[in-house]
C-alpha cells in the first residue's frame, strides 16, 4: 500500500533532447511528452476596469493598463512565435521558454525582463513534488506567462484582481510580476513543511520499527530536497539581480516587495539545508536500530546454544554403549546427572548475567 | 522515564501558513497556536525618572527619555496595527513581526531600525531549547519589543534600569537596544554549555553501555545544534551590519558594545561547530562500542560450539548400535574416551589462545 | 555478461609522459598510443560559396570567408609545426595541442584565441565515456580544429554548412567557433542523461536484489561523473572568460550565443552535482539492503537452532543407558515426551512472535 | 592503566558564566575555579640596563626602555583595575581579560594594541593539551601580559633578555611583543608533533590489535585537533591584521618577523588539517580490522559446524533402536561408517578450500 | 613480502624542533638527522661559455652570465652564512632555508626572489614519495639552489645546458629558475600517475579478493595524496604570485612559461582531488566486498544447520530407550524414517531456494 509511492520518480527526465541536432536558436519543445491542446487566457485590468477572456488577444493590449497573457503549454511552437514576434523577443529566449529543463534565471533585455522559475506543488498522495516550468516576461504594460500545462498556483491572484483585494489593482505590471513570483515562493514553504513532517514520521518509524525500505524513503527525501534546492538557489540569485540591476521596468516602491521575497528564499534555503542534515542523520539511526535488533537475536541464539551444547554432550556420554562405564553402576546416577545439568545451566546463566549479555 | 525527552520536538513547526493565500503585506499571525490574552508593559526612564506600567501607553512617549514598549504576544493584529501607525512602520515589517518563523535579520528604515532575533532558553527537564522570536524596533527615543508570549530573559535589564545598576540609566535608547540583544546572546552561552555537558555524558554512556536510543540522542543534539546555528549565524551578520551601516540612531560610543557582542557571536558559532563535529564522532564510537560487544558474544558462541561439536560427535559414535565395533571390547574404552575428549578440548583451547581469540 | 563493462577503464591514462625530460616548448605527443595515419579536412564557405576537401590546404585560405581546417590526429608533429608556422602559433601552445591530457582552457593571443575542450560521447555498450581532446583556434577568418582521432560530434554542423540550414553561412568564423563548442556541450547533456538513467536502474537493482558488484557500479558511476566534472567545470570558466575579455575576434552579436552556452554549462554542472549526491546515497541503500537480507537469514537460523537445541537435549536424555531412570517405568512416557516437546516448541515460537522476530 | 588518560577532559569548560547577569563591561572572572594568590613580575630593560622584580611596579615605568609587566592570575579583579586605570584601558577590554573563554583576537586602540592568545603546552602523561589564555597589551614602551596561572613558555625569552642573547635587548617593546607570540606559536609545533606521533601509534594499534577504546582515542585526538584549530585559526587572522593595519606601535623592521610568524601559523594549520584527515581515516581502518577478526572467527565456527553437523546426524542414525535396520546386519558396518564420515569430511573441506574460505 | 611497504612512513617527521628555544632568525637545521658532508657545484654559462666545478666558487660570479650555485645539504650552517653574506640574504630567510619542514612559498626581496618548493620523486619499491625541500634564490645573474641531500631531478637541465639543447643557453637566469621549477613539477606528474595505477590495482584487489590490509593501503594512498596536495597547492599560489608581481628579475617573455607551469599545477591538483575521491570510494567497495563474503559463509552455515538440526532431533528420538514407542513395532519403520528425513530435507531446501538465499 505504502510501497508504490516509494518508487523513485522518473517523469521529470525528458525522453530525449530532440534539439541536440538543431541549429542554436531553433525553437523546439524539450520536456515530458505532451500532445494536448494549448490553452490560454487574457486578463486586462487597471484601477477601474477588469476583463478576462480565454485565448490570447494580443491586439487588445493597451498602454497604462496591466495586460496579463497566460499560455498553458509550450509544446505548440506557433503560439510562441506569434507572441515572440509581437513583443520582439530574442529567438534564443524563445528556445529557452520551449525547453522546460531550464535552470531558473533572470535575463534583462532592453525593454523586457525574462524570468524562468520552477512552480512546485506538493503531491501528498505520492509524496512527490510536481514541478512545472514557468516563464514570465515583464514589459512596461504587460506580463506574459508560459506554463507547461493547465493548472497553477495563481488562483488567489486572479481572485485578488477580480475582487480588488489588496493593492494589486492600483499598481502596475511590475507588481503583478512580483505577485506571481511571490505566490510560487509561498508554495515552496508548503512543500518544505510537508517534507519536514514526513521526515518526523520517518524518524519515528526508523526508531520504533525500521523497515526494509526506510532508507529508500530517506533517499527519496534526499532527491526531493535536491529538487527544491535546484529550484530555490538560482531563484535567490535571480531576485538578488532584480534588486541590484536598476531596471526602469521595476518601480522603486516594488523593491521592498522583492526584498521580502528574497528573505523568504533564504529562509527556505536554510530550512532545506537543515532538513538535508537531519535526513542524512537518519542513516546512522537506521543502522543503529537494525544492529540493535540483530544483537538481541544473536544473544538469544548464543545463550540457547551455549547452555544446551554442553548439556547435550553430557547426555550423549551416558547414551554410549561402551563397556564398564562406572557411572552406570551408581545408585543415584540419574539424579546426579540432573544435578550436573543444573550446575552447568546456572553457572552459564550467571556468567552471561555477569557479562551483562542478558 | 528517560524516553519521553528523546522524542524529537515538533512544536516549533507551525501548523499551517495561513497567510499563503493572502496578498503580500497582509498582517496575519504565523506560528504556534496561541489564543491567550496579549500582555504589555511600558517602561519610561532617564537619568532621574523611572516609571513602569502594565499596558502600552503610546501617548506618554516623551523625547529625551528612553521609552520601552514591550508586547508579549503577536497574534493580536490590532495591537500591531496601533503601534505600526503610531511609529509609521512599513506594512511588510508588521507582516514580518507577526510571522514568527522569520529568520533573524536587521533592516534599516530611515528613522527606525528593525531587528528580528531568536530568544533561546534551555529547558533542562526535556533537554530542549525553548525558542521565541523577538522583534526589536529602535527609534530615536524608544525601543519597542514584540515577543511571542509572556516570559523572557530581560529581567536583569529591568532590574538594572529600576535600580540604576551599570550605565544603562545614563545612556540613550540605542544602549537599551544593545543590552536586550546582549542578554539574548548571553543565554545562548548557557544553552551551548548545557549541550556540551550533555554531549560529555552521552560520550560516556556510549563508551560504557551503548543504549538503543544513544544515536537518537545524538540526532536530537544535532537538531538542537542546528537550531542554535540557524539563530546565531544570521545574528552575526546582523550585528556586523549594525556596525558597518553608519546609522544616526546608534551612537559611536555604543559601537564598542556591539563589537563585543559580535565577538560573542563568533565564539558561540565556533563552539557550536566544534560540538557538531564531536557529536558526529559519537556515531563511530557507538558502532565501535556495539560491534565490540557483539564480537565478544560471538567469540563465546564460537568457542563453546567449536569445542563441544566434535566431542558430541565422539559421544554419538559410541552410542551407535552397529555390530562389531572393536572399541566396545577394549577394557579401558571409557577412560580412553575421556582422554580423547581432553586432547580435543585442550587442542582447540590452545588454538584459540594462539589466535588471540580468547 | 554484464561483468566486463564493470571493469574500470584505464585507457585514458597515458602510458608515460615522454616529454618529461624534454625542454619546455618541445612538441611531443602525450596520450594514448596512436600510430594510425593522420587525416584532415578543409571546409571553406561564405554566404554564396562552399567547398570541402580532404587534406589541409593552407594556401587556399582567403579573407572574408570562413576557413575551417580540421586535423584528426595530433601525434604527427610535422603537421602541427606546418600549421603552427603558417598561423604563427606559440610553441608552448603547440606543445599543449600535442598533449592530450590537457585541462580545458582558453588562451587569448593577440590575433587568435586558443580553446582546449574535451569532446565526450557516451558508449552505451560499455557504459563508458569516450573522451577526445579537441583544440580549437579562432583567427579572424579561420577556425582550426585538432582532434585526437577520426570521428566527432560535428556532423550536424557540416550538414548545416553544406545545406545552409540556420544562420551559419551568413556569419563569420566566431559563430563557427561557437557552433562547434555548442555541439560538444549538447553531447554532454546526452552523457549526463544516460548516467541518470543508469543511476535509476542501479537504485532499483540495489533495492530489489543487491549484487556483489552493485557498489562497484556506483564507484564506476562516480568516476564517470568525476570525468564529466573535470571537463565541464573548466569549460564554464573558459566561456565566462570568452564573454568577459572583449576580444575583437568575437562579434558582439555572438555574445548572446556564448551566454546561452554558459547557461548550459551551469545546468550540466548542477545535474552532475545532483547525481553525485544521489550516487553517494546508493551506498547507504546497499548496506541497508544487504543487512536486511542478512538479518532474515540469521533469524531463521536462530529460530531453528533455538527450538531444536532443547528438544534434541531432551531426546538425548532418554537415549541414556543410566540405570533406574524413573520415566522408563511410566506407562505413557512416550506420549508425555511428545507433549513436553510441543510445550517447548510453542513456548519458544510464542516468545519469538512476541519479540517481533518472526 | 592506559584507561584514565582516555577519559575526555572537561576541565576546560567553566562551571558557570557568572557574568551573564551582570551589566556589560562588568569585570568578573570567567574560567576554571581559581582561588590562589596572584603573582606578578616586572622586567625592565634597554640595551644597557636590566632589572627583574617580583610584583607589579607601575611607577617604575620609564620611556625609552622596555617595561614588561607580567601578571599570573586574572581572578583578582583589583589588579586588573589598577593596571587598567594606569594605562587607560577600556572596561570592555578588562572584561575580556578576565574572561578566559575568549577567542584569540587583536584589537587596536589608539595608543595600545590588545592581543588575546591561547598558550598551549602538551601534557605527555595524560595526552592532553594544557591551555591557558594570555592577554598581551602593547604600548609604546611597555608590554603587559596577563596569564591565568603561574608557569609559561616564556622562560627562554627571560633568559635571552637577561643574558642579551639575540637582538632582543637592542630593540623596542614591539619586538618583545612579537617574541612572546612567537614562543607560543613554537609550542604549537611541539603539540602538533606529539599528536602526530600518537596518531602513528594509534594507526599501528588499530592495524595490529584493535582495542575497545581505539576509536575513543581517535575521538580524543579529534577533540585535541579541534582545540588546536580553535587556537590557531583566529591567531592567523590576528597576525594578518597586525601586518595590514599600519599601527605606529609596530616598527616596520618588525614586519618581517610577524610575516615569519604568519607563515608558521599556516604551516601549523595545514598540519592540523592533514592530521584531521588521517585521524578520520582511522575509523575505516578500525572497522576493517575488527570485521576481519570477526570474519575469521565466523569462518572457524562455520567450518566446524558444517563438517560435524552431518557427521553427528550419521552417528545419531546408528544409535536408533528402530527394528530391522539392514546396516546392523552388515559385517563391516563400522568400517563403512568411518569411510562415509571421511568422505563427508573431505568433501566439505574441499568445498571450503575451493570457495577460498579456508 | 608485500607487508613491509605498507607500514606508514615516519621519516618525514623531524625528531625535534631544536630551534624552538632559539631567538628568531637563528639559523639552525630542522629536519631529518643528517651528518654527511655537504657537497656543492658551480655551473656558469652564457651563449658561448660553459663551466662546471664541484664546490661553491662565489668569487667567479660574473655579470651577464648565468651563475648557478647548487648546495646539497643545509645542515652545515657555515655555508649558508657564507652565501647569505655574499648575496645579502635576510637572516629570517636563511632560517627558512635551514628548516626543511617549510611550506612552499615565494618571497620577493628587493633584488632577489626566494622560492621554497618540495622536490618529490616516486619510490616504486616502497610505494612512497621521497620528498626533499629545495630553496631557490633568483638574483639578476645567479640562481642559488639549496637541497637537503645529494641527488635531484635536474639532470636533464644540466644536460641541456652542457649540450645547448633547447633555448636555455640563450636566455637569462630567470629561465633557469623557471626550468628548475618546471622539472620539479614534471616529476609530480609521474608521482600522480604512479599513485593512479596503484589505485587501479587496489580497486581490483578489493573487488576480487579483499585483504586485511587493503584499507591500510588506501589509508597510505590517502597520506601520499595529502603529501602531494601540501606540496602543490601552495606552489600554485606561488607561481600565481610570480606572474602577478611585476618583478624586474623575471623577463616578460618568461611569463608564458610560468603560465604554462601554472596550468600544470592546476592539472595536478585536479588529478589529486579526483584520486582522493576515488580512494575514499574504496572503503565502501571494501565493506561491500567483505560483507558479501561474510554473507555467503553465513548462508552455508545457516543452511547446513537448519537442515540437519531437525534431522538430528529425529534420529535422537528413535535412539531413546523409552518403553512402548509404537514406531518400534512398525514393520518398515526405518524406511519411513528415511522418507521423513527426505521430506524435511527437500522442504527446507525448497524454502531457501524460494527465499533466494541459495
Ligand atoms: Mg544545438
Ligand atoms: Mg538556452
Ligand atoms: Mg500550469
Ligand atoms: Mg510571500
Ligand atoms: Mg520537523
Ligand atoms: Mg521586509
Ligand atoms: Mg502571500
Ligand atoms: Mg516577510
Ligand atoms: Mg516572551
Ligand atoms: Mg554579553
Ligand atoms: Mg565538553
Ligand atoms: Mg571588546
Ligand atoms: Mg619538461
Ligand atoms: Mg602546457
Ligand atoms: Mg575525433
Ligand atoms: Mg546547445
Ligand atoms: Mg533520474
Ligand atoms: Mg539565453
Ligand atoms: Mg555487521
Ligand atoms: Mg552580560
Ligand atoms: Mg567580550
Ligand atoms: Mg601561566
Ligand atoms: Mg618561531
Ligand atoms: Mg606521522
Ligand atoms: Mg620569512
Ligand atoms: Mg624561536
Ligand atoms: Mg620561518
Ligand atoms: Mg637533493
Ligand atoms: Mg613542464
Ligand atoms: Mg586510473
Ligand atoms: Mg601555455
UniProtKB/TrEMBL annotation, chains A, B, C, D, E:
A single Gene Ontology CC term: plasma membrane
InterPro entries membership: CorA_cytoplasmic_dom, CorA_TM1_TM2, Mg/Co-transport_prot_CorA, MgTranspt_CorA/ZnTranspt_ZntB
Main location: membrane
Gene: corA
Signal peptide residue numbers: none
Family named by the database record: Belongs to the CorA metal ion transporter (MIT) (TC 1.A.35) family.
Membrane topology term: Multi-pass membrane protein
Entry's localization field: Cell membrane; Membrane
Protein name, per record: Magnesium transport protein CorA
Record-linked PANTHER family: CORA FAMILY METAL ION TRANSPORTER (EUROFUNG)
GO MF annotation terms: cobalt ion binding; cobalt ion transmembrane transporter activity; magnesium ion binding; magnesium ion transmembrane transporter activity
Source organism (scientific name): Nonlabens xylanidelens
Pfam families, per database record: CorA
Role: Mediates influx of magnesium ions.
Alphabetical UniProt keywords: Cell membrane, Ion transport, Magnesium, Membrane, Transmembrane, Transmembrane helix, Transport
TM segment ranges: 300-321, 333-352
